[in-house]
Amino acid sequence: MPSRPRAGGDTASPAEVLRRGLQRLRLDLPDRTQARLMAYLALLAKWNRVYNLTAVRDPVEMVIRHLLDSLAVLPWVRGPRVLDVGSGAGLPGIPLALALSGVQVVLLDKGAKKIRFLTQAVAELDLTQVQVVHERLEHYHPPVLFDTVISRAFASLEAFAAQSARLCRPGGRLLAMKGPVAPRERVGGLPVRGIHPLAVPGLEAARTLVEIEVEIEVEPERSPGGREAGDVEGNGHGARASRAQRER
Question: 168-178: per-residue pLDDT in tens?
Fold first, then answer.
């Protein structure tokens, strides 16, 4: 994955930028894991030529904006079950799954093209603990709740909390990856446990992780007709089958 020369004359390879970034984040990932992270980026770059999965195309910028940005949240991710809402190209879910091999990760997205890429990436990277689910968030009813629900896809903290809290077990965490965020004590009635500045190596833009606690099990909102918001006839409250499996 060759990259363009960067400011200051730094000619480090993407793999070297990853290694240095992990050191600055104080993350000790094995060489094999680092190689798999780079393999994921190579696959993303290949698919991006046709599917336009990300606007970031320079390999070094992809390391910084995708891998290191995703891995910077590792200290706050709790297992054993993690949900990446609006996963898109697998961010942050795939980097987290590669770094946390013992954690079950679900990648949830509504876009068919993104699901095709995610399914291929999970297969090629042999991520046996990762499930790809093709579904809208409001229609998703997992059989088991999650310890951590994370997303960098939501513009609104309130929307993220309102739509995702029901998927998190009592005592679990919602993690929103954001830019600068003003101090606050609650989001959508849920307590904010921390607004953590993220120092992403190589990234000048401010990044923040908002940590929201789900204290009790959150009941799904119901429509006037009595069904859960987003339910369709015949769906009830059970888990819907993943359409991703049918696309393999």
Answer: 999 999 999 99
